[in-house]
Amino acid sequence: MACSSLDISAECLKLSQRKELPKHVAIIMDGNSRWAKAKGMPRIAGHREGAQSVKRCIKAAIHNNIEWLTLYTFSSENWRRTPEEVSDLTSLLKYYLKYEARQLHKEGIRVRIIGEIDRFDRKLQDEFSAIEQLTKKNNRLTLTLALSYGSRGEIVRAAQRIAEDIQQGNLTIDQVTENVFAKYLFAPDIPDPDMILRTSGECRLSNFLLWQSAYAELIFVDTLWPDFTENHFNAALETYVRRERRFGARPGL
Ligand code: IPE
Ligand code: IPE
Ligand code: MG
């Protein structure tokens, strides 16, 4: 069982106004296939419905003045799914980016993509560049889509690039600090997530932001992603504001 309650009483909402909300929320959007199965529908129906939840979630993030929203959309490991499901997912992504680009731009959202982009077909890679380009000057919310993203792969890639720089004399071993290492990750300018939320009752990170999540508050909820609404988002923020973040320091200091 996941551990957050969905109680969003007036008292809770007051609490969130007093305490500091997360600047960066990252979400593992899980449970699309179980949602579809429960309804006797094909998996793609769950993914399609999940795309509607993405829109609701963006709205909720904006309403709460969240600056950074990162969505785990397709993992490096998701390529292991059947060719039909992979093809359905990439088609849905293509459709979403094509038809939502203008709306996202209109709403002042900057879109970023992280992951092994070159594993997608050329046309989709072009869509990624187009939406990043179109929205790059926006500053209301930075929406990062993690696509063909895997954290171990990201860390290995960073280590390879550091080794290259050392070999070429651009960097010394002593200069490789935590801060320098982080600069070699996919998006060094994006702050670490304050909160990572996973839907569908699974309590694991599944290779998502392993480096960046060192001090993130982890919140697991039972709701399946296609059922996720603005109220669920607000409830997760309520759970977050009740947590005490310590970063290794003694409580109360
Ligand atoms: C999440 O839904 C979407 C992706 C991983 C692409 P799933 O398809 O993993 O749904 P469940 O977890 O099997 O229900
Ligand atoms: C994680 O969900 C990836 C995304 C939500 C995009 P999975 O459904 O792929 O993760 P596991 O297999 O349950 O760990
Ligand atoms: Mg899943």
From TrEMBL:
Native organism taxonomy: Bacteria, Pseudomonadati, Pseudomonadota, Alphaproteobacteria, Acetobacterales
Main enzyme class: transferase
InterPro entries (UniProt xref): UPP_synth-like, UPP_synth-like_CS, UPP_synth-like_sf
Keyword RNA-binding appears in the UniProt entry: no
Gene label: uppS
Pfam families: Prenyltransf (PF01255)
Cofactor note text: Binds 2 magnesium ions per subunit.
Keyword terms: Magnesium, Metal-binding, Transferase
Record: residues binding substrate: 31-35, 43, 47, 75-77, 79, 81, 198, 204-206
Function: Catalyzes the condensation of isopentenyl diphosphate (IPP) with allylic pyrophosphates generating different type of terpenoids.
Statement: the UniProt record of this protein carries the keyword Zinc: no
UniProt: Mg(2+) binding residues: 30, 217
MF (Gene Ontology): transferase activity
EC number: 2.5.1.-
Annotated organism of origin: Commensalibacter oyaizuii
Family: Belongs to the UPP synthase family.
Residue numbers annotated as active site: 30, 78
Cofactor: Mg(2+)
Full protein name: Isoprenyl transferase
